Amino acid sequence: MRKIIILGLVFFTLFNYKTQAQEEPNRAITTATPFLLIAADARAAGLADQGVATSADAFSQQWNPAKYAFIGKQQGVGINYTPYLSNLVDDIFLGSVNYYNRFGQDGRSAVAASFRYFSLGDIEFRQGPNDEPNVQKPNELTLDVSYALQLSPTFSMGIAGRYLRSDLRLQGLGADASAAGSFGVDVAAFYRSEEIAYNSFNGRWRAGLNISNIGPKIKYDDAGQENFIPTTFRLGAGFDFLLDEYNRITPSLEFAKLLVPSPQDFDGDGDIDAEDNAEYQSISSFGAIFSSWGDADGGFSEELQEFTWSLGAEYVYKDVFSFRGGYFNEAEEKGARKFVSLGLGFKYTIVNLDVSYLFNASSVQSPLEGTLRFGLSFNFGEDFYDR
Predict the structure, then answer these.
(1) Burial per residue of 256-287, b for 16 or more beta-carbon CB atoms within 10 angstroms, e otherwise
(2) Which pLDDT value is given to residue 172?
(3) What stretches of the chain show up as alpha helix (H) in DSSP?
(4) Which structural domains are found in the chain, ordered by start?
(5) Tens-digit pLDDT profile for residues 184-226
(6) Per DSSP, what are the bridge partners of residue 316?
(7) Cβ distance 102 to 109 under 8 Å?
(8) Are 57 and 80 in contact (CB under 8 A)?
(9) Res 180: pLDDT
(10) How far apart are CA 144 and CA 114, in angstroms?
(11) What Rg, from alpha-carbon coordinates, does the chain have?
(12) Quick one: DSSP state of residue 145?
């Protein structure tokens, strides 16, 4: 029973991520497969969930696959582990495995593949106290492939395809739902300027854009409703302060917005009811990409609340030691996620080790509060210039 309660808590925290005063209406946007919004690598987590415009690494698949065309090594493999609700249980986690290969003339092309797996632990059902348990293992996963091409010395684009599978069945409760599946597509771009000489240092601009998880809704059973997958717009920029050959500091800023319809009172009766929900369900996933920029009942001010933003900075010494920090903010009415993150990185020959830690700064408890995330990557093969 305790595991069922905890599982319910997981669903609540994943699907809602929201809180507000009692007098405020519920305006948070919810989607299926929300684990796709969790940072699946420790480096990005240490930068407050930033990755669309940071330098390329083995884990770029989730944030901006176009970055692989600028990565510094020919090939690489990355593994990451993120405990979830670690203060309550020890078998709920998010894991990822990534691989990339840069090839072609001057390494202008790159392909990558990744696998993400979100386990909600083992849940035992028994008819009687002495019966053999019926063990259920709800889980969600994605399998991605991507291609990136360097179109100029400073600009690249990438595209990714993603298979989604969500198996949240609990047959011990008599549920007749089956595992649900869908697919998503990412379209991404990345810009990294040439090195610019200033009076006392050199510098380089970075910028990135990614529209991820463009795809159809997901449905768990014939009688249930279809749910939007978390199609997300990300835009970010940063600047490398190349202080000398040993020291580099990169501050960065990133914005993100779900391209999913806002909760709406279509009939104007002051309440979002079943009829409003039926009309909400009639919106197509492709149409929502465009309509979600201006569909909030609260107008432009509410649309602005649907953007999350994060500030981060990374200091690198001798391309060996990295220190990271960041702050993530989401409007109170749209989820109230707010946290401060810290991260460390260490590189030895072909091995990179990353660790991050999250401090919750919201009135809503974060399921990742007090969680250490670990990432390990191996980069090998031909060298390409990158800092």
Answers:
(1) bbbbbbbbbeeeeeeebeeebeeebeebebee
(2) 52
(3) 2-16, 42-46, 274-281, 285-291, 300-305
(4) 2-383 (2.40.160.40)
(5) 999 999 999 999 999 889 999 999 999 999 999 988 766 667 8
(6) 248, 322
(7) yes
(8) no
(9) 85
(10) 5
(11) 21
(12) E
Give the bridge partners for 288, in sequence order.
none
Residue whose pair of structure tokens reads 């319910």 in the numeric block? 8
What's residue 131's pLDDT? 64
Chunked mean pLDDT (size 10), the chain, 387 residues: 47 44 58 92 96 96 96 95 81 93 91 95 69 77 97 96 87 62 95 93 96 91 78 97 94 96 76 74 88 87 92 96 96 90 95 95 86 93 74
Q: Name the nearest CA neighbour of 35 among 148, 138, 107, 151.
A: 138
* Encoded tokens for 260: 């999913």
Measured over the CA atoms of residue 213, residue 216, residue 220 and residue 225, the dihedral's sign is positive
- CA-nearest of 110, 112, 113 to 70 is 110
Query: Distance between CA atoms of 10 and 83, rounded to whole angstroms?
Result: 12
pLDDT at residue number 344: 97
Q: Which two tokens stand for residue 148?
A: 């990136």
Which segments of the chain are extended strands (E)? 73-83, 92-103, 109-120, 123-125, 134-136, 139-152, 155-167, 180-192, 196-197, 202-214, 218-219, 226-227, 232-242, 247-258, 307-317, 321-329, 338-348, 351-360, 372-383
pLDDT of residue 2: 46
Q: Of 280, 301, 162, whose CA–CA distance to 228 is shortest?
A: 280
Residues in CB range of 220: below 8 A, 6 or more apart: 166, 168, 177, 178, 180, 227
Residues 6+ apart with CB under 8 A from 372: 83, 355, 356, 357
Can you give the pLDDT at residue 5?
A: 42
- Looking only at Cα atoms, what is the longest distance across the chain? 77
Owner of token pair 């060996």: 320
C-alpha span between 231 and 187 (Å, rounded):
11
pLDDT of the residue at 367? 87
| Burial tier of 171 (Cβ tally within 10 Å: 0-12, 13-18, 19+) | exposed
For 207, the token pair is: 């910028």
- Token pair listed for 169: 């069945």
Report the candidate in 343, 313, 327, 323 with the shortest Cα–Cα distance to residue 43: 343
